[in-house]
Amino acid sequence: EGPKDFSLGDRARKVGGSDQAPYNNCADREVLLAEIATEGYAKLIAAMRAAVATVKSPTQRFEVCGRAYVEFALSEKGYFRIMFLPELVEGIQQLGYTFIPATSLL
User: Fold this and answer.
1) What's the Rg (C-alpha) of the chain?
2) Could you report the per-residue pLDDT of 66-89, keeping only the tens digit for each?
């Protein structure tokens, strides 16, 4: 099941809630997915920053940053799938978040 098949009502029922319970906190599916994606971006950036924190060489920083990206993609597949849904970029920006350039990590 992918993000396009994601249903707030299904998730609520799986944890014993009502179909309408998620809407008490989220306006709609896109807002919830944008929040999840935003959390994923924060986790990815933190992992990449931690990876480059002690590395001085630009070439090595590029390498460890790339490795951290791939490790995140493999270990956090749910976040990763949602983070890169094209239709969520606008929603994330509407929440007041901006994307940081990857070069700021190098």
Assistant:
1) 16
2) 999 999 999 999 888 888 887 776
Is the separation of the CB atoms in 22 and 33 below 8 Å?
A: no
Q: How far apart are CA 77 and CA 66, in angstroms?
A: 16
- The three-point CA angle 41-46-48 to 5° equals 95
Please give the single-letter amino acid code of residue 29. Answer: R
Query: What gap in Å lies between CA 21 and CA 30, rounded to an integer?
Result: 16
Structure letter (DSSP) for residue 27: S
User: What does the alpha-carbon distance between residue 47 and residue 70 come to, in Å, rounded to a whole number?
Assistant: 11
Q: How far apart are CA 68 and CA 16, in angstroms?
A: 36
pLDDT higher than 70, residue 8: no
